Amino acid sequence: RFVEDAIRYGFPVGGGHGPINPVGRLIEEAERFKVLESMRRAVEILESMDISKYIPESQSNLVMAIDGADSLSDVAAIPGRIVRIYDGVKASEAPWFGASRHVANAVLTAMKFDPRVRSAMNLRYDERLIEAAKRLGWVVSFYDRREEPEEIKRLEGRTVPWGIEVAVKRAGGRVPDLVYHLGDWGKEPMILVFGRDSMDVVEKVRRLIAEASR
Amino acid sequence: RFVEDAIRYGFPVGGGHGPINPVGRLIEEAERFKVLESMRRAVEILESMDISKYIPESQSNLVMAIDGADSLSDVAAIPGRIVRIYDGVKASEAPWFGASRHVANAVLTAMKFDPRVRSAMNLRYDERLIEAAKRLGWVVSFYDRREEPEEIKRLEGRTVPWGIEVAVKRAGGRVPDLVYHLGDWGKEPMILVFGRDSMDVVEKVRRLIAEASR
Amino acid sequence: RFVEDAIRYGFPVGGGHGPINPVGRLIEEAERFKVLESMRRAVEILESMDISKYIPESQSNLVMAIDGADSLSDVAAIPGRIVRIYDGVKASEAPWFGASRHVANAVLTAMKFDPRVRSAMNLRYDERLIEAAKRLGWVVSFYDRREEPEEIKRLEGRTVPWGIEVAVKRAGGRVPDLVYHLGDWGKEPMILVFGRDSMDVVEKVRRLIAEASR
Amino acid sequence: RFVEDAIRYGFPVGGGHGPINPVGRLIEEAERFKVLESMRRAVEILESMDISKYIPESQSNLVMAIDGADSLSDVAAIPGRIVRIYDGVKASEAPWFGASRHVANAVLTAMKFDPRVRSAMNLRYDERLIEAAKRLGWVVSFYDRREEPEEIKRLEGRTVPWGIEVAVKRAGGRVPDLVYHLGDWGKEPMILVFGRDSMDVVEKVRRLIAEASR
Fold it and tell me: How confident is the model at residue C2 (pLDDT cuts 50, 70, 90)?
């Protein structure tokens, strides 16, 4: 495992694997702690916000990836998601890694275009949020699930990566602040807000909702 | 309030309100306790079952109405729903009244056809569950959201009551053991299992999943 | 069970059991619902109060008995108690019956002297709370565990009933608003606030702490 | 902060601070993640164990310090403690740092004698557990709160460190597997089980209880 990790974290120097980097594993674990710390604070703020009407039917999740993430187990999220309870919201559990697929996949894809964008949260689709984002000068993009190629549809878990890639390209290669899709047969339309870390995303969600409520 | 309740619970004797029934309010409150008690036991059993893969994207709820229920506040459910957490499920909160709309509305509609059917739970749509229900000899019915009349679609919260009514009529007026719909644009397909009380529903869900896994 | 309950709830008319009372069981179940409802609201208020420094080492509980309670299963409490979490407090679970021994026994004893006093909460012993209670004009009493007779000490769960009885008698037969004891070897000193229902107790705790903080 | 940390984590080379060590902060954060990971697994196992009757009145906590810990904020614990709920136990929250004083202080003191002993859990005092520990060949020691010097008693939070130091010295300088004290006026008697990490402690608790139940 040590050798394997050292190779995985090797410095990229030209072709092949870089030289052995014994600090790689340490960096990753330190990253994981920092991500959990950011998530904890972000969730505490979220739970105090008045956002229950923006939680989708399929509930919401807030995720944040470690630097250099390349799999779902590198992305922290809320196991059981963030749920509406009467007029409030509550994180079902404390954040941990590997607890999200959809939103985590969206972030892993965004990171391929901009490795600094490591966090996202999904919200109920609401046209007023889209308009608010535009008024705020955000980069807004979308994808249309009906345009998903058949060969991708057949693969489990490939729709979101495909969609985010489409949305990024539509935005000229930049990762948008907000990506939406209008749903499909059996699929709820959805909004995703992207940011650098979970605190950044929560702050953006707050501004977005405030703008939409003006 | 006393007089109002007494009238509401008056015995139905011919036209107009029946004679004053001072026990009505007592009966209702006793009912509420019994419903909570049944829900608590049912949730405890559910949490020990291996059903996470049958929890829909929009999560699940288990609901049970008091005898004679006529509004959402007469139906107990899980605030925050029953959520998937890794490979298990967890009730977000203890059961209480007024915590569900969709599944609770389904039960309120079913009760108009058979007042003894006071509980239901929704599951992820899966053809194997439908087939299992048929093998078990259950009454299975469905509705198609595309057939919903325009004037009903425009009304908030009327789709589920309309759909359940269609499904009951399709089953010859009996409340089915299982009702499904195949979704719509933006709407997840869904299965509903009906029963007399929450313990009955949980037991039926257990048998259904066991049969589907054979 | 019906006959048994009917006898248990029979009206007390002279010697022996009163006449059969078929409404008895209904009354009890209705009572249970009303107690849970009161507890839920009281807990919600408690969780918003700044009382973490008044939570004892052995944590706190808030309990409320049904009218006519005569056993621990007639007393609702917080399973897992009300715990300190950093600077706040949290009910471990939703209220249910049979979840407290010490505080519930205190209430069952108080009810023998005044059946209207059906709720209590325990707080960390703090002289300032005692003084505040006196300034508020409350009936304050106490017991000294060292004076507990040997034959009672040997019995499991008899200390609290003995102590409350001592405290009530010391107060001239009235159930005090506040009872304290100064502890014993291995036993944390404690304050108990009594009231008619859980909302009354929480309101009294709020006033007590406000007065102590002046 | 960087310079400060680098100094704090400087390699110990003779007198004064060692050379600047830029990896120090990284090591600490990586440690924090590993501690949380160990705690999560340990708590999951604890919650499945039948230990409710060994949970003290003041509830239990399981703590684990990072390597080189020197303050309470370096020790992970369960905020709200591990509470008894009917016949089971439940962690009130997910583990995090700075959530324990008593048990965390015990570990910080033990680490001064043996830096490898970084975890502990407290249990209800029960003579059968002491005897079981002896049968298992454990190092068992104790302290007597009545022997605590007056000048230490006056200081907030110094009792546990004093007691653990006494117990370690009584055991000839080794950190015992189990330390107990018999309580004091107002203080519950208690057992502490020490181990290298939280999984080690939980495994020891399991063996101890199994031996005591034989």
Answer: very low
CB atoms within 10 A of CB C197: 20
Residue A94: closest CA among chain D residues belongs to which residue?
D94
Which range marks the domain in which residue D12 is found?
2-212
What is the per-residue pLDDT across D138-173, written as a single tens digit (0 to 9) for each?
999 999 999 999 998 888 889 999 999 999 999 999
Task: Give Cα separations from A196 to A77, B87, C194 (angstroms).
Answer: 15, 30, 52
| B72 to chain C, closest Cα gap in Å | 17
**What percentage of chain C has pLDDT greater than the value 70?**
90
Contacts of A193 (CB under 8 A, 6+ apart): A120, A121, A122, A123, A177, A178, A201, A204, A205, A208
The CA distance from B116 to the nearest CA of chain C, in Å, is 20
Neighbouring residues of A176: CB distance < 8 A, sequence distance ≥ 6: A138, A139, A140, A141, A167, A168, A194
- Mean pLDDT, residues C110-123 taken together: 98
Which residue, among D189, D192, D188, has the nearest Cα to D205 in the 3D structure? Answer: D192
Helix (H) or strand (E) holding C180: strand C178-181
Distance CA A134, CA C17 (A): 77
The predicted structure's pLDDT at residue D27: 93
Instruction: Give every residue of chain A whose pLDDT is below 70, as ranges.
Output: 1-22
Residue in chain A nearest D37 by alpha carbon:
A96
The Cα angle at residue D59 between residues D56 and D64, in degrees rounded to 5: 110
Subunits next to B (3 or more Cβ pairs <8 Å) are: A, C
Q: Is D184 on the interface with C (CB under 8 A)?
A: yes
CB contacts, 8 Å: D182 with chain C: 186
Please provide the average confidence, as pLDDT, over all residues in chain C: 91
Beta strand D96-97 pairing with A178-181: unpaired
pLDDT score, position B101: 94
Q: Which residue of C has its CA nearest to B26?
A: C30
Is D in contact with B (3 or more beta carbon pairs below 8 Å)? no
Distance from CA of B164 to the nearest CA of A (A): 18
Alpha helices, DSSP H, located in B12-158: 24-47, 102-113, 127-135, 150-153
- For residue range D115-136, list pLDDT tens digits in order: 999 999 999 999 999 999 999 9
**Number of domain units in chain D:** 1
- DSSP state, B49? S
Token duo for residue C82: 């009300």
Residues of chain B with pLDDT under 50: 1-18
Cα–Cα distance measured from residue A97 to residue A31, given in angstroms and rounded to the nearest whole number: 12
pLDDT score at A2 = 40
Structure tokens, B139: 């009454």
Cα gap C78→C99, rounded to integer Å: 6
Cβ within 8 Å of residue C147, ≥6 positions away: C166
User: Using 50, 70 and 90 to split pLDDT, how confident is the model at C153?
Assistant: confident
ipTM of predicted complex: 0.87
Concatenate the DSSP letters of all residues of C44-76 into one string: HHHHTS--GGGS-TT-B-EEEEPTT--SGGGEE
* C92 reaches B (C-beta below 8 A): no
User: Is D85 in CB contact (< 8 Å) with chain A?
Assistant: no
Tokens 């460190």 sit at which residue?
D161
Query: For residue D205, what pLDDT is reported?
Result: 98
CATH number of the domain encompassing residue D123:
3.40.225.10
Residue of D nearest to A36 (CA): D33
| C-alpha distance from A29 to closest chain D C-alpha (Å) | 4
Question: What's the rounded Cα separation, in Å, for the pair A131 and A178?
Answer: 11
pLDDT 10s digits, C61-79 = 999 999 999 999 999 999 9
Pairwise CA distance, residues A56 & D212, whole Å:
51
Query: In the predicted model, what is the mean pLDDT of residues D28-55?
Result: 97
pLDDT of residue C12 exceeding 60: no
